[in-house]
Amino acid sequence: MKTIDEIIRSNRDFFEEAEPSGGHLARFERKLELRFGKATVKRSIVPYLLKAAVVTLLVTLSSLWTWDNFIRPDRNRMTLSDVSPQYKEVENYYIHQVKLMESELGTITLASDPAHNEMLEKEMKSMDSVYVQLQKDLKANPDDERIINAMIEHYQTKVEVMSYILNQLKELRNENLNTMEDEKVSI
Q1: Which residues of the chain have pLDDT under 50?
Q2: Best CA proximity match to 121, nearest among 130, 111, 109
Q3: Would you state the pLDDT for residue 109?
Q4: What pLDDT, on the 0 to 100 scale, is given for residue 69?
Q5: Contacts of residue 147, Cβ cutoff 8 Å, sequence gap at least 6
Q6: pLDDT of res. 183
Q7: What are phi and psi of 122, to 5 degrees?
């Protein structure tokens, strides 16, 4: 039995001179379609992914721009940490002190009179509104030392007021505990 290579070599002249008959390519494609089914068009997912990436990027950038220019609550304010690293340390120290005292106040004021708690919250909000105004002034005049000093003094005053309130509440609580103990003993 002859191999296909031997057949092609022995009939080389026939293969090189003869051309396929007309419509050969069309018949061949028809036979392939019948044998393997309709040719499916393969679509790439890359164009769809690129479109989705572009839309995502545009939505993200527009959201960030909107947040920065319209929604951000502190866009008109500037903090001490924006001025210099030294002021950042000072601001962080006072913020830490205020948070410590606020947590301590929270534990003490829970048991006291609700009217006192409301008055204390009102005073703290008033002090915070003064600081917000100082932040706005600093944004308008970032090199003004008077505003920077006023902000630092505000923190110092807030810490002093809070420590005074804490001491008064502790004394009041201790007096109440002593009177309760005295009442238990006298009964």
Answers
A1: none
A2: 109
A3: 62
A4: 72
A5: 134, 137, 138, 141
A6: 64
A7: -65, -45
Token pair for 112: 């006291």
88 exposed, middle or buried (CB, 10 Å; 0-12, 13-18, 19+)? middle
Query: Whole-angstrom Cα distance, residue 98 to residue 33?
Result: 80
SS3 of residue 178 by DSSP: helix
What is the distance between the alpha carbons of residues 62 and 66, in angstroms, rounded to a whole number? 6
Rounding to the nearest 10 degrees, give the CA dihedral for residues 162, 166, 169, 171. Answer: -130
Structure tokens at 178: 């002593």
pLDDT at 48: 92
Query: pLDDT digit string (tens) for 97-139?
Result: 989 988 888 777 655 567 777 887 888 888 888 888 888 888 8
| Residue environment code for 117-131, b if the CB has 16+ CB neighbours within 10 A, otherwise e | eeebeeebeebeeeb
Quickly count: other Cβ atoms within 10 Å of residue 162's Cβ. Answer: 21
Contact 154, 131 (CB under 8 A): yes
Q: How far is CA 183 from the centre of its chain?
A: 55
Distance separating alpha carbons of residues 117 and 102, to the nearest angstrom? 12
